[in-house]
Specification:
Strand order of the largest sheet: 1-3-2
Strand content: under 5%
Radius of gyration: 18 Å
Number of helices: 11
CATH superfamily: Biosynthetic peptidoglycan transglycosylase-like
Structural class: mainly alpha
Distance between the termini: 59 Å
Number of strands: 3
């Protein structure tokens, strides 16, 4: 290996290792201006509709609904749901379709810094960024960023844009049912419309409402307690 190539590889490694913690330190206090997924969607012909809202101005119903839908241990784990990860590994080793084991922290790391996909390089980078994120950000900040950058439809990012587009109201005024419908479409927001739910989404939203009622104060403490 030539000295020049060695220097280039060394510089690349340093940027890859130090870039995420430096970026996370900055984004602890400033909103992410844009995400890789937003840029990808722009090149695919979509626009960007987003409006940053602090966590306190996002309905507590939506905060609870997203935790019930995506990661009910969010307030108690350190970024990784180890039991779900082990289940996913077991499924993979047995040739079964793997179940989702991605936490809200992991999804936030992916959304803010990385590209869509399931390749091993992306997953490794996601784990690295998640570990730093849990170290540098409080849980409330992770939830706040997630709720402001999550994709909720073609060109729609964040709770405020989604609430205004689908329900014609600010995110702070979302009802329990509306919040559950928004959370229900998160696995595939480009295919499902929370304002015109299919029977599957309507049933899923009802299930989420029951789960929301079962979440105790400990499981909701990091995002402001019970709605």
């Amino acid at each position: 290996m030539s000295p020049r190539l060695r220097k280039i590889l060394s510089a690349t490694a340093i940027v890859a290792l130090l870039g995420p913690p430096i970026g996370l330190a900055a984004l602890r206090v400033i909103p992410p201006p844009v995400t890789p997924l937003m840029l990808i969607r722009v090149f695919q012909g979509e626009g960007i509709a987003k409006s940053w809202m602090p966590l306190s101005r996002i309905s507590p119903h939506l905060r609870a609904a997203v935790i019930a839908a995506e990661d009910n241990l969010f307030c108690t784990h350190a970024g990784f749901d180890l039991e779900s990860l082990q289940d996913a590994v077991d499924d993979w080793s047995e040739g079964k379709r793997t179940r989702g084991a991605s936490t809200i922290s992991m999804q936030t790391a992916k959304n803010v810094f990385l590209w869509p996909g399931r390749d091993i390089v992306r997953k490794g980078a996601e784990a690295y960024v998640t570990a730093w994120m849990e170290l540098l950000w409080p849980k409330s900040r992770i939830a706040e960023v997630y709720l402001n950058v999550a994709e909720w439809g073609p060109g729609l990012y964040g709770a405020e844009a989604a609430a205004r587009h689908y329900f014609k109201k600010p995110a702070a005024r979302l009802s329990r049912r509306e919040a559950a419908l928004l959370a229900a479409v998160l696995p595939n927001p480009l295919a499902w419309n929370p304002a015109k739910p299919t029977s599957y989404i309507a049933n899923r939203a009802s299930t989420l409402q029951r789960r929301m009622a079962q979440l105790g104060p400990d499981l909701l403490s990091c995002i402001g307690g019970e709605p």
